[in-house]
Amino acid sequence: MNDISQGILAVIDLHGVTRLVMGAAADKHYSKKMKTPKSKKAIRVMEKADPFFKIWFVCKGVLICTREDLAKISAFPWSPAPSSIPGSISGVSDQNSALSHQQGSHEERANSTLPVNCSRRYLQRCNQFTASVRSQSQQDNMNTPKAVDLICPWDGIQNDEPSDSRHILWTAHDDLASIPGSTNDTEEAKQRQGVEAMLIRERQENEHLRSQIDEIYNKLQEAEKRKIENEQRIIQLEDSTKELEDKLLGVQPLIQSQKVENDNLQCKLDDALNELDNMQAQQITVHNNLSSNEFSFDEIMVATRGFAEDLKIAEGNFGIVYRGLLRNTLVAMKVLHWDGMQRRSKFHREVAIQNMIRHPNFVTLIGTCPVAYTLVYEYLPNGSLEDRLAYSNNTLPLPWQARTRIIGEICSGLIFLHSNQPHPVVHGDLKLENILLDSNLVSKISNFKCTSPYMDSELISTAEVTTQTDVHSFGIIIMRFLTGWQSFNISNRVEEEIQSGNLHSVIDSSAGEWPFVQANQLAHLGLRCIELSRMKCADLMTDVWQVIKPMMQVAAMSASPLSFASASADQNVPSYFMCPIFQEIMRDPHIAADGFTYEAEAIRGWFSSGHDTSPMTNLKLANKELVPNRALRSAILEWFPNLSQ
């Protein structure tokens, strides 16, 4: 039970317990000076238990005190009348007058103590009790009276006032005690004990029934309350269901039109993917035909003109790269340094990696020359990203659209590497010098330093290289693209500018007018990628790619001929046609919870980067739900009809 002391009393009543040993207090409160119970439960049990109930109170194995039993501390003050004292036997007339007097006094006391609403059956039972005692004593006052058939005054009568019943019992005992020679002390004690036992059982039954009735009544009240609440909830649900049904009927036409539009877009996407698959299949076929070739040392010598200096493209710790024409194909040949067994190990490891990896953003291996330890790759004419950021050979700076796309290409390539089964592949030396550009400025990752850390025991013994190593390098590349700075201490400088609110001052102006919201997202992504903690470091698939993918799409639209952001300056384009984030004409406008309309990809990218505030008001949004602004989209299409293409 919730009330432990009440539960103890209930168990006592249920099983008729007469003796109990219980704790006087918790052991930690034990004291040699303790003489009385300190526990609230012990005190409540002692106060509420029947007076004759025997209790021993102990604490830490020591008897603290006992509760005297009924004979010592009885709650019923028995005080027989003087006429019941042995030796004061008088005549029958005296007895009758005494009985008459006792009967009168008994009725007066009963009438004065019984409640108004008490049944008169109490008085009738009391009169019967007194009459039976009187008739028994008159049979033979010279002999020891026989046992009297006591009639309990409250037997069979429902009453919730045990105190009144006790008063009637005391009156009956007074009447019995006033009859001279009616019984000896032993017989009187037995009769008293019998009456007391009956009273106790009756009171216990009444209390038990009362508690059961109260419990059932409380349960009924609670059930009725729940019933009313459920009925109200059902009414509310019915109203909500009706409202939702009405709304659903209203949006059905929009759903149908959206479905038709999605089907059309899906058809176009399928066609584009099929065309891309065909192109990639043709490219892979060509590369496979070339890679199946094993070139001879003489072919390598002819292609490099005996490793001429003017054909040298790059040189590093790994070897020297030459440009040359091999079987009528312009290729790049990497000749590993002549350093014995290490050269052979690196040669076979890189061949194994390149044969395992086929991805549009990795340099393709065309063939090999085992004799000369030479790897033949496709030739990439636009050099490395490091050269482009340094404006080497008077090259033009990369615009922000191209930088955004290249960041996405590098991210895609790393995700492909790290998703390799059964173990991820690690590049291990990701930097701008090892990322090359083809004739269309498509990035290609090259110069792997290692493979999976589970496969290269030599590398494991020298340094632990994991996928997080590549993610950290990727974060540095993002910040270098964003700022144009060198990598030394770049993360601390960018973080300081972000905290001071001066991020715009570090954005590379040579990249063009980079949308500030997008630049801000990239800066935060870069800082998350360089986190040393694995728990805080960004995940390429779930964190980075979800933000960069919509950025790439926006950058592609901005760089394509269908972008009207610059061409519309002379056409007085309404300001509400422009996306507040990308500052370009919206193609798929959506309304956010702040009431402003954004390009769908732009606001989704804002949410994906971890923001829950409005880009316009900087206040927390109630939700991240978006609603298509079809009216605005129709107005934009009327202004620019060819935008729908």
From TrEMBL:
Q: In which pathway does it act?
A: Protein modification; protein ubiquitination
This one is known as RING-type E3 ubiquitin transferase
Give the EC number(s) listed in the UniProt record: 2.3.2.27
| UniProt feature coiled coil, ranges | 199-282
Region Disordered, as annotated, extends over 87-112
Respond yes or no to whether keyword Zinc is given for this record.
Answer: no
UniProt organism field: Rhynchospora breviuscula
Catalyzed reactions: S-ubiquitinyl-[E2 ubiquitin-conjugating enzyme]-L-cysteine + [acceptor protein]-L-lysine = [E2 ubiquitin-conjugating enzyme]-L-cysteine + N(6)-ubiquitinyl-[acceptor protein]-L-lysine
Work out whether the entry's keyword set contains Coiled coil.
Answer: yes
Residue stretches making up the U-box domain: 572-645
Q: Where is the composition biased (Polar residues)?
A: 94-103
Ranges annotated as spanning the membrane: none
Q: Name one Pfam family in it.
A: U-box
Alphabetic keyword roster: Coiled coil, Transferase, Ubl conjugation pathway
Q: Name one GO biological process term.
A: protein ubiquitination
Q: State one molecular function term (GO).
A: ubiquitin protein ligase activity
Q: Where do the Protein kinase domain residues begin and end? A: 307-552
What InterPro entries does the annotation carry? Answer: Kinase-like_dom_sf, Prot_kinase_dom, Ser/Thr_kinase_AS, U-box_ubiquitin_ligases, Ubox_domain, Znf_RING/FYVE/PHD
Q: Which domain of life is it from?
A: Eukaryota
